Amino acid sequence: MADCSDYSIDTVKRLVEQKKWEQVIDKCNEALLAIGEDMADPKYRFYRAKGNYETEDHTESLTDLRAILELEKSKISVTLRFDCLVMKAECLYSLEEYESCKQTVKTAFTQRSEPSLYQLINKCNAKLGLSGETAPVADVTQKKSFRHEWYQNDAIIVISILIKKVDKEDLTYQFKERHLLVDIKLPDNQSFVLNMELFGKILFTESRVTILPTKIEVRLKKATPGPWGKLERDKSSDTTSNIQSFCPDDPFIRQQDPQKFPTSSKTFKDWDKLAADVAKEEAEEKPEGDEALNKFFQQIYGKGSDEQKKAMMKSFQESGGTVLSTNWDEVAKDKVEMKPPDSMEFKKYDQ
Fold it and tell me: Which family does the similarity line name (predicted)?
């Protein structure tokens, strides 16, 4: 049996980065077969669609993209939905379905405006003999300003965007090593966009965005512990000089309380205390339903050894999801039998 890591999204992502499209398709097929298409992360179907698109099997790619877009909003992120719409539009263009491509682009415009969308709709218009027609500006949101603040400690940056009562369907965000994008759709065809090159590098897999009643909170995990001189990278100057200005050898820094770092505020606060509060808040979060179950599995799987992870994958798959064991010595011997709850009885299909 294949190691459980063979089915991980990270494995597929590495193959995507290497542009090994046939292997991307094969790995996604294996994962979807092992986990089940209804239970698997929709990203497997997205990456399989990407592989098929890159190998010019646009019809097969469309099948996966349409299946993802038909999922309930709670099962697919805003970012993934947007990416599916863009790839769907590109597939339709390649299949010469220009009107359908335009309609898909217009749907994507309701979530976010991208230069590539303008180019695609204009290419469709040219193919349809409508070269004088421009992209649908009525569908493009107008940007609006909102106040945002930030603070930091040695390990994290916390940005607060002071917008109240935002629905998760209206929020799109993206982390990169040194880049942050937050796009919030607002009423009256407006949006708020925070798009910046960051002062330092972040661990984007450990960063997150949280919707609170009175604001949006962005938490960025620093790749290298230590204070940042500012939030946004100054493109016109060398950031190395800014970093050096906060070197511990600087006598001004030695005179400050080491728990207090520069922020956008004119006053100083004890950010270590705030960081402790943040950590406490994360520990006290209580997800519900499927989210709670997924978090529980992630905690066990994330802390387990390679053998424990293999045991979890084998027991869960072979038992139809009724057994979850971390004892590889036990589950390696034989096939793990299905164990239904006490109040239920297992019967084969033909019984």
Answer: Belongs to the SGT1 family.
